[in-house]
Amino acid sequence: MVLMVFVTVFAVNKNHEEVEKNYAFEKQLEEESKQAFLKAYKVFMHPRCVNCHPAGDAPLQGDDSHIHSQNVKRGIDGKGLYALKCSNCHQEKNIPGDNMPPGHDIWQLPPAHMKMVFEGKSPRQLAEHFMDNEFTGFVNWQEDLIHHVEHEPLVLHSWSYGTRPPLSHEEFVESLKEWIEKGAALPD
Amino acid sequence: MIEIDVNGKKHNVDATEDTPLLWIVREQLGLTGSKFGCGMAQCGACTMHLEGEAVRSCITPLSRAKGKKIVTIEGLDKSLSEPIQKAWIEKDVPQCGYCQSGQVMSAAVLLRENPKPTDEDIDNAMAGNICRCGTYQRIREAIHIAAKSI
Ligand code: FES
Ligand code: FES
């Protein structure tokens, strides 16, 4: 009888210990996930990214993210309006020289029906947005988000001119992967 | 040699692929209606149409223009150039005139895509064409007048 009580108490304690250990482990994962997002967030908020994810309908420009000169507009498809379409000035590649328009085959803002605004969003709001397929147009948000940041030409282009984002492209992608693998925790 | 099609005529030009289209059109083809203002896509004086779009030819490399249809102020289709020209004369738009071919080429794209533009549409189309003489109000009025006859 005494032995049985002893065994039971031991088992309960052991279980409790396990639960506590698991809890601590999950807490740690959650914290690491949040930290990984906060690292990537610095890139999302960098002018190379946020300038094309503005809160208004005009792109931003420069390291101080001022409104794009000539007050160019998003337009329905994100490619500008009338005589001020993006590719009227932005060529297929960067033009060498100070203050020359950067370029790529595709040059645009997110379209009017899916503006994907980053400007002014807190880390938590942005993380929530990424999980919302209506914000991004993704189908499987985790896979599609990683694919987008890893391969989307305009994302890659952000590392090709002007002041570069604060992480390398590899570090940026790794941070987002870590955020997701560790549970995609929402920053506080 | 690079072949380009300007105002419906084919030309073989002797230049490298990164030469700006404006250089070739003015210097080699002798079409000097398009002007050089800033050379960095900031003023609109050099605006030409490339496949119908109002590109800034001072920074458009020949590699992009190759095999595409280019239209300069000298070759703008009469369905657009005549009403615009008449309205420009009626409102006496130009002062020094330097920016005006670029203004007309931008206005032509606006009117082709939106035959009844509002003031806001005009601003959205024309804000990239700088006029140092400040003829903006007359340009806006002239576009409204041209729109009535298109
Ligand atoms: S000369 Fe081309 S935009 Fe100024
Ligand atoms: S008329 Fe002189 S710059 Fe426009």
Q: Would you give an account of this structure?
A:
Chain A has 188 residues and is mainly α. Chain A contains 8 helices and 4 strands. In chain A, strands 1-2 form a two-stranded antiparallel ribbon. Chain A has a two-stranded antiparallel ribbon with strand order 3-4. In chain A, helix 6 packs antiparallel against helix 8. The N and C termini of chain A lie far apart (50 Å). The model of chain A has no long low-confidence stretch (mean pLDDT 93). By secondary structure, chain B is an alpha+beta fold. Chain B folds into 2 domains: 2-75, Beta-grasp domain (Ubiquitin-like (UB roll)); 78-149, [2Fe-2S]-binding domain (DNA polymerase, domain 1), CATH 1.10.150.120. Chain B is 40% helix and 14% strand. Chain B contains 6 helices and 5 strands. In chain B, strands 2-1-5-3-4 form a 5-stranded mixed beta sheet, with helices on both faces. In chain B, helix 3 packs across helix 4 (100-113). The N and C termini of chain B lie far apart (39 Å). The model of chain B has no long low-confidence stretch (mean pLDDT 97). The A-B interface holds A 69-73, 81-85, 87-89, 91-92, 95, 97, 99-101 and B 40-42, 44, 47, 53-56, 59-61, 63-64, 105-107, 109-110, 113-114, 121, 123-129. One FE2/S2 (inorganic) cluster (FES) binds at residues 94-100, 131-133, 135 of chain B.
Short description:
The complex is a heterodimer of chains A (188) and B (150). Chain A is mainly alpha-helical.
The global form of chain A is elongated
The largest sheet of chain A is:
2 strands, antiparallel
What's the quaternary structure here? heterodimer
| N/C terminus separation of chain A | 50 Å
Regions of chain A with pLDDT < 50 over 5+ consecutive residues? none
* CATH architecture descriptor text of the largest domain in chain B: Roll
CATH class descriptor name of the largest domain in chain B: Alpha Beta
- Strands side by side in the biggest sheet of chain B: 2-1-5-3-4
Number of helices of chain B: 6
Q: Radius of gyration of chain B from the CA trace?
A: 15 Å
Number of domains of chain B: 2
- Percent of residues in helices of chain B: 40-55%
**Structural category of chain B:** alpha+beta
Compressed to H and E, one letter per element, the order of chain B equals EEHEEHEHHHH
Ions and ligands: FE2/S2 (inorganic) cluster
Secondary structure: number of strands of chain A: 4
> What percent strand of chain B?
5-15%
